[in-house]
Design brief:
- Helix content is 32%, strand content 21%.
- The protein is an alpha+beta fold and 153 residues long.
- It is globular and about 45 Å long.
- It starts with a helix and ends with a strand.
Amino acid sequence: MYRIAAVVLFVMSFAAGCGTDPPPPSDEVLISRFEQYRPEFERLLSITKDRARVITSYSAGDPEVQSQMRLLGINTIDGPGSTVRFRCTGGSYLHSVDKGYIFIPPESSQPSPTYVLDSLDGSVDVPSERGAYDVYRVIGDGWFLYRVVNSDE
């Protein structure tokens, strides 16, 4: 009897943990962190923009990069090239919230972000077509906050 109860409790706990993500950090928290550590963000950008396509905090290989990622609350860097994405949210295995910083150099040949909003917090209006869209909030000098929004949300 106790074994069955223990198994049921374990399964329910596991399902609850996989089914919900913590909310992503607010825009204000991310912007405040960026303003406080701007030189560190610029340094991390300069040392990672020409590296492997995806760098995670546990596979960076470079202790300086790992340390900077932890300090800045970044768990993944997606590059290389002129546009580099710094992902701050991880979500659970089954559900993921994708929010963080992105650097798009002003002189880049990439088009400017299409969906620039005043806030990425809470529900976000996206086009009526189905799919995922990147929405942005300007920080300045080529830096933006980004959030991937699924139109099915």
